[in-house]
Amino acid sequence: MVHINRRDWVVVFLVSVSAFMVGLVVASSLxxxxxxxxxxxxxxxxxxxxxxxxxEKAVAAVDPAVVKVDVTLKVxxxxxxxxxxxxxxxxxxxxxxxxxxxHKREYKSYGEGSGVIVSPDGYVLTNNHVVEDxxxxxxxxxxxxxxxxxxxxxxxxxxxxxLKIDGxxxxxxxxxxxxxxxxxxxxxxxxxxLRQSHTVTAGIISAVGRSNVSLADYEDFIQTDAAINPGNxxxxxxxxxxxxxxxxxxxxxxxxxxxxxxxAIPINMxxxxxxxxxxxxxxxxxxxxxxxxPLTPEIVKEFNLPVDKGVLVADVIDGGPADxxxxxxxxxxxxxxxxxxxxxxxxxxxxxxxxxxxNAEVEIYRGSKKMKFTVKIGELPQEDKGIMKKEGEEETxxxxxxxxxxxxDIARELGYEGEKGVIITDVEYGSPAYExxxxxxxxxxxxxxxxxxxxSDFREAISRAKRKESVLFYVRSGEASHYVVVKLK
Length: 489
Description:
Layout: H1 6-29, H2 46-62, E1 66-77, H3 91-96, E2 105-117, E3 123-127, H4 128-131, E4 136-140, E5 146-148, E6 150-155, E7 160-164, E8 174-175, E9 186-191, E10 199-210, E11 221-224, E12 236-238, E13 243-251, E14 262-266, H5 267-280, E15 286-287, E16 290-294, H6 297-302, E17 311-316, H7 321-325, E18 332-336, E19 339-340, H8 344-352, E20 359-366, E21 369-376, E22 378-379, E23 394-396, E24 401-405, H9 408-414, E25 422-427, H10 432-436, E26 443-447, E27 450-451, H11 455-465, E28 470-477, E29 480-487
């Protein structure tokens, strides 16, 4: 151990004090006090001033065109019965509470959102979910003026709605090009969240091309961390040039409030929808006439495909555009009009934007064989049907499903008239079938590409399949059919 005597300690102390005093002198010369705080305000850099000015100019350019949308809805409720039921069938309660048979009460409900004026003649872009089923819509401007708004058209598939107000000297927002949006760009959201008029929040573009968010049928969202809350719906997302690049529509949240993930409809998509709604009051979309599903490694293996990107044709609608062109169930679509197809949403968007009657080039793999087809695109039908469910009785333990043969009654109830097969009546939680996505109500049409019409066919096919590592099911869910690979090992 090194020993330090008293004289050495004194020397160390004097040196430390001298160093401290020198530090104070240096700090003073740099205009810094001992706590590291500037004695005088630090001059703002020119770049920072320009950025701040850009924020201010962007808001000033768009905010006057942002409107508050107030909605009145008529809601029908079932008859009012206190305490859940009439106690003791009492005449007193009947006289004062019971309503005539079949009578339903109507009452008013109120909602609000945001919108943005996009033309001098008073067209307003907002969300479909803001104005859907509205009895009355009132639009309030930044200067306090209020107008009754007319719905020009709504598109639930993209959540876009177009309103019209009759007013003079309207401020109009400039629409940008959402195809030029890049991750990391600074953006501002303007709207009326939580009843706070003309609120501006700032953030960046977190992602583009977001789909599978389950907010709309056609999704290509811009994701942002600019704060978006209830009431922001329908308001604009803008860049620092003061251009609208999106229509704010939803948030991802566990609480219902802001959590840093918001979604906006790209303005280019909104413009396309708006023009069609203004012209005809409805949106016309292209239709290929196929049901599709994602391409998984298991599907690639089962169908001997030489690619790992694309979408699988799960079913072809009889007499539809794809059927007439020669596309078959089990084909893998890899290109549409010369553009690579990487996922289902990409293909759906591309087809929807193709004008009905136009020809489209579709490139597919049928097994390992590459083929090309020219398809005359049709118009997407408007109707969309769901599916009901029904219990059943026979179990296939290893796979984890319970099935029964399709009867006429079940076929009518589930919409499977004219079909043959076995119906899944139950799926065991955590089983191979559950993990693969099979569900109650699915109609099994094939097992390992063998047609299934009876329970005997199914038992025989499953008996052979149990010796394999996986089983390929072809099932129908409502009107849609698709392939499912169930791993057994």
